[in-house]
Every structure is written in structure tokens, then in C-alpha cells.
Specification:
Length: about 290
């Protein structure tokens, strides 16, 4: 097999960047754009091949923070998608390719009483990755214009201004050195049905199943409408959305690994220089003990 992995990152990034005025019904959740292999059997290998370069960039990002650049470079990855779309699979298979010490994962659940007493961004701000880290949000600020909207947890007068508040929040993060990448894991309702049944047919997967997934699933159209608004109203160039066709897990993982790689190349973090005189220290080590 001839591989084209060196050109894949920019190809995938361009192909999956969410276009203006997107309609989700126009996007095929089973598509495999830019994939150079023939199917699942190549995908794992092609994804693993990216791990060396991904690992080097992650190490440079972390090491570079020791030089205390201003603003401090870091990355924030937002994962959104319907139940079973594969948010935790992406964490495991894609972010598992880099040193876990450099990654901070936070899963946002139903807000606590304390969180609800604050502005919706209060709990989000506390999880912004520090200098040198790759932060991953498994669900995010966007739940406050998704489930909150669909389930009418607050009136429209309250969630409507949040699109603009999120845009401003993300712009301020970018100004403070954060590279933001947002992934919508796009699956079809039929694929979700198969995955839910898969969980129910395997006792080792019962823990992943929740009867509460059915009422959410029954509002599929409302969720897609809410997602379309998110993708159309919060898709600034500085904090782009990617719609990842996720019916095929192998494609999903490969595509996200490529987009991640392309953004890390663009960030171009560098190892810091020494904070000491190297020759002096060589002499000191040689003469020690
Ligand atoms: P899971 O990701 O399956 O563990 O479930 C987390 C649950 O928390 C999902 O049902 C989300 O919709 C819910 N959730 C997350 N953030 C919010 C929020 N801001 N308001 C209400 N529900 C939320
Ligand atoms: Mg769930």
C-alpha cells in the first residue's frame, strides 16, 4: 500500500472543516474523505503511524512552556456528539497516542447546585488547560445551548445570548494562548440504535448504557437543529468546528488524529533553550562524584 500520510492532515482538515450555513442533513456520517487506505484494516496502522509525530509535538508543547512564553501556549479540544458518538473512544484511541502526562481531560456532567448558582461559563473557565497542556473537554460549554435548549431547562431569553458569550469567551482564550479545536462527532440515528443494542447485548457494556439515552434519542431532530445553530453561530476561524463522520470508528479516529496533527504543526511549539551555561554544566557533571 502506498501511503499519503504526509499530505493527509491538511486534506482532512480542509474536508471536514464545517462550512458556513451548514445543514447536517447534507453531511454523510459514513463518509471517509481523504482516507488513503481501503478500510478498517489500514486505518489502525495509519493512525498509529501518526503517533510519533504527535508525541514529539506534544512533548515540545509541554517543554516549551518551561520557557514561560507570553501568552502561554496550550491546546483545548472540545468533543461534542450524541450518546454513543464516540467521545470517550476518541480520548482513548487518539489522545492515547501521546504522553498522558501532558493531557488534562474533563468530562462535563449535569451541573451541580453550586455550578448552577453561577454563570454557565464558571465551571468551564476552571478547566481551561494550563500552559503546555492539551486539554480535552468531553462535553463542554456547548451543552448549555444543546441539552439546555432542547429540554427547555432555561427560557430562550437565557440561552439565546450564550452563542455570542461563547464566541467572546473563546476569543479571549485564543488571545491568552489557547489553540481551540472543536469536534462534532456525527453519527446517524440508525448507527446509534445499533450501538445502544450492542451495549444491551453485552453484559460487559451494561455500564455504558443508560435508559435515559432513549428520551434524548427521541428528540434527534431537535438536537440536530440545536447542533446546526452551534455549528453555524460559533464557528469562528480562530476556534473552528470540524464535523467528523463518525459512523465508522476507524475513520473517526484517523481523521481526528490528522486534524490534531495539522493544528500542532501550525502551533509549531519549540523546545526551550537552556537556562544555564551548557559547557559549564558539562564540566560540572564530569567533575562531580
Ligand atoms: P454522559 O456524558 O453520558 O456521562 O452524560 C452526561 C450528562 O450530563 C448528559 O446527559 C448531558 O446532557 C448532561 N449535561 C452536561 N452538561 C449539562 C448542562 N450544562 N446542563 C444540563 N445537562 C448537562
Ligand atoms: Mg451517556
Amino acid at each position: 500500500m502506498t501511503t499519503t500520510i504526509t499530505t493527509s492532515p491538511s486534506c482532512v482538515r480542509a474536508a471536514l472543516a464545517v462550512p458556513p450555513n451548514v445543514r447536517l442533513s447534507d453531511l454523510d456520517p459514513s463518509a471517509t474523505p481523504c482516507f488513503p487506505g481501503t478500510g478498517p484494516q489500514d486505518a489502525a496502522q495509519l493512525t498509529t503511524q501518526l503517533s510519533k509525530e504527535l508525541g514529539t509535538w506534544q512533548e515540545k508543547l509541554y517543554a516549551g512552556s518551561k520557557a514561560k512564553p507570553t501568552p502561554p501556549q496550550r491546546m483545548l479540544v472540545v468533543l461534542q456528539g450524541m450518546d454513543t458518538a464516540g467521545k470517550s473512544g476518541v480520548v482513548r484511541h487518539v489522545f492515547g497516542l501521546v504522553d498522558p502526562q501532558g493531557v488534562k481531560i474533563h468530562a462535563f456532567k449535569q451541573p451541580t447546585e453550586e455550578e448552577l448558582a453561577h454563570d454557565f461559563l464558571w465551571r468551564i473557565e476552571k478547566q481551561v488547560p494550563p500552559a503546555g497542556y492539551i486539554g480535552i473537554f468531553d462535553r463542554s460549554q456547548y451543552e448549555d445551548v444543546l441539552v439546555v435548549r432542547v429540554d427547555e431547562l432555561v427560557p430562550p431569553s437565557q440561552w439565546e445570548p450564550r452563542f455570542e458569550q461563547i464566541n467572546q469567551f473563546e476569543a479571549s482564550l485564543v488571545d491568552s494562548g489557547v489553540t481551540i479545536i472543536k469536534f462534532f462527532l456525527h453519527i446517524s440515528p440508525d448507527e446509534q440504535k445499533a450501538r445502544l443494542l450492542g451495549r444491551l447485548n453485552n453484559p460487559n457494556k451494561y455500564w455504558k448504557y443508560s435508559p435515559g439515552d432513549i428520551p434524548v434519542r427521541s428528540k434527534w431532530a431537535e438536537y440536530m437543529a440545536a447542533y446546526e445553530d452551534v455549528l453555524n453561530r460559533c464557528n469562528q476561524d480562530i476556534a473552528p468546528w470540524y464535523a467528523i463522520p463518525s459512523n465508522n470508528k476507524w475513520y473517526r479516529n484517523w481523521a481526528i488524529a490528522n486534524i490534531l496533527l495539522d493544528h500542532l504543526r501550525q502551533m509549531n511549539p519549540a523546545y526551550p533553550g537552556p537556562s544555564f551555561d551548557v559547557d559549564e554544566q558539562i564540566t560540572a557533571v564530569e567533575n562531580s562524584l
